[in-house]
Amino acid sequence: MSPAISLLIALGLGLAGWLVARRRAYRFLQESQTGRIAALPNYHGWYAALWIAVPMVLFLLVWEAVSGQFVLAHALASPEARALPDSGLLRDRMISEAYNLASGASTTAYSNEARALAEPFREAMLRYDLIGLAIAVIIAGAGAAWAFLRLRPEAKVRTRVERIVLLGLLLASLVAILTTLGIFVTLVFETFRFFGMISPIDFLFGAQWNPDPMSNAANPDPNRYGAIPLFWGTLFIGAIIAMIVAIPFGLMSAIYLTQYARPRLRRWVKPALEILAGVPTVVYGYFAALTVAPAIRDLALSMGVDNPSSESALAAGLVMGIMIIPFVSSMADDSIAAVPQSMRDGSLAVGATTNETIRRVLVPAALPGIVAGVMLAVSRAIGETMIVVMAASTAANLTGNPLEAMTTVTVQIVALLTGEGSFDHPATLAAFALGFVLFLVTLALNFIALRVVRRFREAYE
Amino acid sequence: MNDTSASTVPPTAPTRTVAFEKRLKKRYAAERRFKMMGLGAVVFSIVVLVFLLVTMTINGLGGFQRAELSVPVDLSQAALSIDEPVTNADEAISSLQRQGLPEVVQYSASEALGDEAADQLASDAWRVVADEIVADPSLVDESRTYWLPASEDLATALTGSGQTNLQPLARELTANGALADRFDPGFLTRSDATDPQMVGIWAALKGSILTMIVTLALAFPIGVLAALYLEEYAPRNRWTDLIEVSINNLAAVPSIIFGLLGLAVFLGLFPNLRSAPVIGGMTLALMTMPVIVISGRNAIKAVPPSIRDGALAIGASPVQVVFQHVLPLALPGILTGTIIGMARALGETAPLLLIGMRAFVATPPEGFTDNATVLPMQIFLWSDEIDRGFVERTSAAIIVLLAFLLLMNGLAIYLRNRFEKSW
Questions:
Q1: Do residues B169 and B217 lie in contact, with contact meaning Cβ atoms separated by under 8 Å?
Q2: Does the entry feature the keyword Transmembrane, yes or no (chain A) (predicted)?
Q3: Which of A9, A288, A385, B90 satisfies CB 3.0 to 4.6 Å to A410 for a cystine?
Q4: Spatial distance between the Cα atoms of A322 and A372, rounded to a whole number of angstroms
Q5: Which residues contact A446 (CB under 8 A, 6 or more apart)?
Q6: A 230-249 residues inside an 8 A Cβ radius of B
Q7: CA–CA dist A152, A133 (Å, integer)
Q8: Which of A293, A27, A389, A360 is nearest to B381 (CA)?
Q9: Which CATH number is A222-460 given?
């Protein structure tokens, strides 16, 4: 049964409970001598609805996660399952084929065994769906009984409902912590598995990157897992080339727009820059791969470079820099605007030109904010994926020549996880280790940047 | 009287020596240069933006067209029949195929255009005729001219590149008016295919819509409730600090990390839902939620305390104050932030790449658990195709994606202007 239908049943029962409880509350209201009851009728409705729907939905969620195991066990206990091979990939594939056939996800199966097994699967699914639904309805009924026994004219249901609402609010805000924790635990767990196969020293300080997902997983070659070329490629593309484009252009745009431009121009240009920031990265990647990279290769050819690569670090870095310009510009804009007007006026009053004021007074005063903005921009650039996936190469290359092909951490994560490797192979687990490094580095950059901004802001308040 | 003689001071002050004048000139020149550099930076950004949009538009306009051959088909002689009423379009089409419609179309084409041109009809060209018959069964007795898709090779030849032996044929057919680039409305209604002449974006668009529904259904309530808690109830202690720090960090975590989380956790729990909109939507929801929380908190903070005090004063409980007074007033601001967050999620590719939404999807997903792809992913997949025809199709898909994003951002700006209040 689809989860949507179960959910609708739960909501329908909840609604029924809401209506009935509310009507009862109105009757309380009529019967009471004072014309008052302890809570508004709506709250009676909510009290009943929550007691009916919440336990039922919670149970359905749990059931959705565990019933698959029951179905599998039931189907494998059937006589048809004996025809399957005892173990191995073939068996797993037949089981999943049969499952897909039974659940309607596919209409054909390649093997006869899978077709035969589909019938027990279907039967098991139906059976456990019905069991699940029955238990869910019983739970809802129990919730309803509990709630309706407690609904009296003098029951303070509002405070109870509100306590549940507050609990809901608290749970919602805990999702952020759970996500952070989830990211951290997953990355740490998989990274440790990886470090069980390849030593962290080899990974962090090796200069050869060439993992082979088809090699023997039990005995990987540690010399193929040196991530230095990836770190260098990431740094070179994201923190050097992209910043060479983004910092001057972003900073100068911000200065021009805050100090020189007339309000009318500013009103038009700022949203345009924001569009530049809102273009999806896959579009930038396409632009880089289709337009910028060939142009750079042609330019290099015409300048007499032998055999320039069609996937150059320069193309990816340039386009990434363009993507980051509006980001740097708005951060610089904010921090320049935060410098008190009196400092600017003072400088102009002693006869400095606008340009001297900007360079000697405004920029130095806004420097911590600008530096923080640049750090956030770097953190964004090194985490950027699609541009480099489409415009940089997958070949690890430890070089300082921007015209050569280079690869980055994010490109390798995508390459390793979209391949055919199994989840127990160090080549797949390496992607998580790379992700962990990326997570830690971007986290550190963001953290320092936020600290710098906070400290800087206090200076003028 | 001596005082008036003071008015005969020289026109330039004595401090304005020649060196001073020179220095001043230099400073003014530096000022102008600096200003020009600033203007240059702004102009550069705008030029790049315009260049990007213009190249995409020029390339993409071609993607909404395809090379089509005009073929007169006399269906009355083919004695096709179609069951009335047409209950199932798929069945009707396969019945027409069994009755020999492909052969009829092929024969008509070689009669009208010659064998060489008929060979350059796309292999699925008869489906265009079949679709029209299903839409209007009376066509089976009529003779009509259909515009049918040409093969990819002929389409390339029409642009003056590709196989040299086809180029004279393409020129001849164009001169006869039998071959032309025609607007292809089917690009929006068909799904992915291996032939660029036959592809469309409907499956990807539908996948995007389904994914966005899941994202919105999860991220919006959770984001708003979390924002309400943090802004209205949360005591100042270590716990709320921790929540705040993790929300701010999540907003800055690279999107690919969310893909790793989705891969390890969601696909670990539901291995059968690989590349389904539910999983994609859940992953994107985790990414969008912090954006909604941050913008929601700002909107809630902007509601003046007097509103809360007024409601509390007439006996509302804190929960009633928040849900009946603060939330409605903050909602426009929260919606603006939500739309911006959703626009970002709509353009996101990297996390979905990791959770396997890169499959070739030729049938639009029926529900939240079907195999699906999304619009940015379709762009990514097409950009890897080597066929020349896919370049234009990719740009056309990009135009559609950008149009959606502009629409969403426009809506956000409209909402902001319409409901912006200053208390």
A1: no
A2: yes
A3: A385
A4: 19
A5: A375, A376, A379, B248, B249, B252
A6: 248-249
A7: 30
A8: A389
A9: 1.10.3720.10
Which H or E element spans position A223? none
Q: Which of A186, A256, A276 sits opposite B41 (nearest CB)?
A: A256
Q: How many Å lie between the alpha carbon of A223 and the closest alpha carbon of chain B?
A: 25
The number of CA neighbours under 13 Å toward the Cβ of B375 is 30
CA atoms within 13 A on the CB side of A312: 26
Q: Which residues of A touch B49 (CB under 8 A)?
A: 272, 275-276
Residue entry with tokens 């007033």: B329
Q: Is B274 helix (H, G, I), strand (E, B) or coil?
A: coil
Residues A392/A396/A399/A403 CA torsion (nearest 10 deg): -30
CATH T-level assignment (fold) for domain B202-419: MetI-like fold (1.10.3720)
| Residue A107 exposed, middle or buried by CB count within 10 Å (0-12, 13-18, 19+) | exposed
* Inter-chain CB pairs, A–B, below 8 Å: 252
What percent of the residues of chain A are helix, what percent strand, and what percent coil, each to the nearest 5?
Answer: 75, 0, 20
Residue B49 CB: number of other CB atoms within 10 A?
A: 18
Query: Which tokens go with B413?
Result: 């700006």
Beta pairing partners, B180:
B68
Domain boundaries, chain A: 3-155, 222-460
The DSSP string of A24-65 is: HHHHHHHH-SSS--SS-HHHHHHHHHHHHHHHHHHHHHHHHH
Tell me which residue of A251, A211, A215 sits closest to A230, measured CA to CA: A211
Structure tokens at B43: 């102009």
In Å, how far is A180's CA from the nearest CA of chain B?
6
pTM: 0.87
Q: Would you state the structure tokens that stand for residue B407, as one six-digit string?
A: 């629409």
CA angle B37, B38, B40 (to 5 degrees): 60
Q: Which residues of B touch A332 (CB under 8 A)?
A: none
Contact B187, B197 (CB under 8 A): no
A-facing residues of B in 105-124 (CB < 8 A) are none
Query: How far apart are the C-alpha atoms of A415 and B354, rounded to whole Å?
Result: 9
> A271 to chain B nearest CA, in Å?
11
Q: One digit per residue, pLDDT tens: chain B, 423 residues?
A: 455 455 555 565 667 788 888 999 999 999 999 999 999 999 999 999 999 999 899 888 888 888 888 888 877 777 777 665 556 667 777 777 777 778 888 888 887 777 777 777 777 777 788 777 777 777 777 777 888 888 878 887 777 777 777 777 777 788 877 788 888 888 888 888 888 888 889 999 999 999 999 999 999 999 999 999 999 888 888 888 889 888 988 988 999 999 999 999 988 887 777 888 999 999 999 999 999 999 999 999 999 999 999 999 998 988 899 999 999 999 988 999 999 999 999 999 999 999 888 878 888 888 888 888 999 999 999 988 877 788 888 999 999 999 999 999 888 888 888 887 776
The torsion angles phi and psi of B195, rounded to 5 degrees, stand at: -100, 120
Q: Of B156, B154, B92, nearest to B127 (Cα)?
A: B92
Q: Helices A41-76 and A89-103: crossing angle, nearest 10°?
A: 140
For residues B258 and A182, give the distance between their C-alpha atoms in angstroms, rounded to a whole number: 10
Q: Can you tell me the distance from the alpha carbon of B243 to that of B247, in angstroms, rounded to the nearest whole number?
A: 6
Amino acid letter, A226: G
Q: How far apart are CA B20 and CA A123, in angstroms?
A: 98
Is residue B304 reached through a cis peptide bond, with omega within 30 degrees of 0 on the bond before it?
no
Taking the C-alpha atoms of residue A426 and residue B67, their distance in angstroms, rounded to an integer, is 49
H-state helical runs in A338-408? 341-349, 354-357, 363-383, 386-391
User: Quick one: closest CA in B to A165, which residue?
Assistant: B319
